């Protein structure tokens, strides 16, 4: 995007040509031809694991459960809402639940254990993680492991992951898991049946990923969890992250099952700019924008389950519907999404997925809230760029007013002192203080009228 053309105009111009090409090249493109009769209740799509286990293609990511204020004013998980959502998911065939000691300020496992323990243990799969990010002594790591069992009310883990390896390279992996004896311990736990499947979740550079796969002969990874969606497929933020097509293909070569995280890329693929969303709706009028992303992730045969951090009933019901009447994408539809991803890769957004690993900020800054507001405005084309821009005053006021409504004044970007405590925890390798200072500078220019 250059000169005074704004984001909305750029996308309108670029998208029009793509839409025309896509609509003429894809079969069944007329709205009338895509309407379907009542689909009925459907049945959850399942994938067969190498050991014969039947895993629901939709997995429940327990990282974004709803929070409420507790008696002491602190945020706590709304257990009643969690129970209701788990009941719906379970009754509609969702049997894979992914959590971590690090999720939701350490509350996720307890909530998951409370909700799931109401059902027969053998009827669902629990996935959790060795989240020893800050302290990885043998004692601290073993405590994490045993605390997870207690909080999840279980005596075995179906799927156990080394959490987010790759960000610190091979050295961090060896310190967190090898030098302290934890790999030897987890291998023995797998032999004893207390870990049924051992794997890892990955964020990092290609050389680290390649190294971890060389260890497959030694450790026999039962599965690997990767960030995979149609934007990251060929447009990941390299070199700090790796394109998902490379990750998937390398795992597929070795016949290692894949579990997918961030199919919506923190919600970005559920709230596309208007013209791109319109292109998807023209192709499939009865389908949501988000369902395209879920269909993409589920269309690859090595994928065992696709995790979604559903925080309310609406996305849960929609995602259950998508995978209960699952329709894999055609090759042409996949190419169509790749072209849309090519347009999206030029967007000046912050690559935040709202995972909240960076929280709480010691200075109270609402890091994910700031990035979410900024990204939403960029996606909607509501960014004031220069005084010469049409509707500059209107866009300026709209941004400032909505920013103050979205983020409390004392938690805004200009309060960042650049301590950097957040940055090592970001799985997307975002330079968080830099991005906060960039947004703060932009806002200050808006307020002073010096843009």
Shape descriptor: globular
Please give the count of helices: 18
- The poorly predicted ranges are 1-38
What does the average pLDDT come to?
A: 88
Kindly, what is the distance between the CA atoms of the first and last residues, rounded to a whole number of angstroms?
Answer: 17 Å
Rounded to the nearest angstrom, the radius of gyration is: 22 Å
Sequence of secondary-structure elements: HHEEEEEHEHEHEHHEHHEHHEHHEHHHHH
Strand order of the largest sheet: 3-6-7-8-9-10-11-12
The helix-and-strand class reads alpha/beta
The share of residues in helices is 40-55%
Describe the biggest sheet? 8 strands, parallel, barrel
Number of strands: 12
Indicate the proportion of strand residues. Answer: 5-15%
Characterization of this structure:
The chain has 451 residues and is α/β, with parallel strands linked by helices. 44% of the residues lie in helices and 12% in strands. The chain has 18 helices and 12 strands. Helix 1 runs parallel beside helix 12, helix 3 crosses helix 4 and helix 16 runs antiparallel to helix 17. The protein is globular, with a radius of gyration of 22 Å.
Spell out the blueprint of helices and strands.
Blueprint: H1 7-25, H2 31-34, E1 46-48, E2 54-56, E3 58-61, E4 67-69, E5 75-77, H3 79-91, E6 96-98, H4 108-116, E7 125-130, H5 138-151, E8 159-165, H6 169-178, H7 182-192, E9 198-202, H8 206-214, H9 216-219, E10 223-227, H10 232-235, H11 244-253, E11 258-261, H12 274-283, H13 289-298, E12 303-308, H14 313-324, H15 331-344, H16 367-380, H17 392-406, H18 432-448
Parallel strand pairs: 3-6, 3-12, 6-7, 7-8, 8-9, 9-10, 10-11, 11-12
Antiparallel strand pairs: 1-2, 4-5
Helix pairs in contact: 1-12, 1-15, 3-4, 13-14, 16-17
């Amino acid at each position: 995007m250059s000169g005074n053309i704004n984001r909305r105009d750029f996308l309108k111009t670029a998208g029009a040509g793509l839409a025309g090409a896509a609509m003429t090249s894809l079969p069944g493109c007329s709205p009338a031809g895509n309407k379907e009769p009542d689909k009925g209740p459907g049945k959850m799509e399942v994938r067969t694991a190498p050991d014969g286990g039947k895993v629901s293609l939709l997995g429940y990511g327990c990282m974004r459960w709803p929070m409420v204020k507790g008696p002491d004013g602190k945020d706590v998980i709304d257990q009643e809402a969690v129970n209701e959502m788990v009941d719906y998911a379970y009754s509609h065939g969702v049997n894979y639940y992914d959590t971590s000691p690090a999720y939701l300020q350490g509350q996720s496992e307890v909530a998951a254990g409370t909700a799931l323990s109401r059902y027969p243990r053998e009827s669902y799969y629990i996935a959790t993680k060795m989240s020893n990010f800050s302290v990885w002594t043998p004692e601290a790591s073993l405590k994490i492991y045993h605390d997870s069992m207690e909080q999840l009310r279980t005596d075995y883990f179906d799927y156990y992951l080394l959490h987010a390896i790759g960000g610190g390279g091979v050295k961090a992996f060896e310190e967190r898991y090898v030098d302290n004896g934890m790999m030897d311990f987890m291998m023995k736990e797998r032999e004893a049946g207390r870990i049924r499947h051992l794997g890892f979740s990955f964020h990092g550079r290609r050389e680290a990923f390649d190294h971890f796969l060389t260890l497959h002969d030694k450790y026999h990874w039962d599965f690997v969890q990767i960030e995979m969606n149609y934007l990251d497929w060929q447009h990941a933020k390299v070199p700090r992250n790796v394109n998902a097509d490379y990750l998937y293909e390398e795992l597929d070569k070795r016949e290692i099952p894949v579990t997918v995280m961030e199919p919506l890329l923190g919600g970005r693929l559920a709230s596309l700019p208007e013209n791109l969303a319109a292109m998807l709706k023209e192709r499939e009028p009865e389908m949501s924008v988000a369902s395209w992303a879920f269909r993409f992730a589920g269309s690859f045969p090595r994928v065992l389950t696709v995790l979604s951090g559903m925080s309310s009933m609406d996305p849960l019901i929609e995602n259950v519907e998508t995978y209960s009447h699952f329709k894999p994408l055609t090759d042409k539809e996949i190419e169509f999404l790749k072209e849309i991803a090519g347009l999206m890769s030029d967007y000046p957004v912050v690559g935040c997925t709202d995972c909240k690993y960076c929280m709480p900020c010691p200075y109270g800054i609402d890091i994910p809230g700031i990035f979410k507001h900024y990204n939403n405005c960029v996606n909607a084309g509501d960014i004031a760029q220069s005084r010469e821009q049409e509707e500059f005053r209107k866009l300026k006021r709209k941004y400032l007013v909505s920013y103050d409504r979205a983020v409390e004044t004392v938690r805004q970007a200009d309060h960042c002192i650049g301590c950097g405590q957040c940055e090592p925890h970001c799985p997307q390798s975002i330079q968080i203080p830099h991005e906060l200072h960039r947004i703060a500078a932009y806002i200050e220019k808006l307020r002073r009228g010096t843009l």
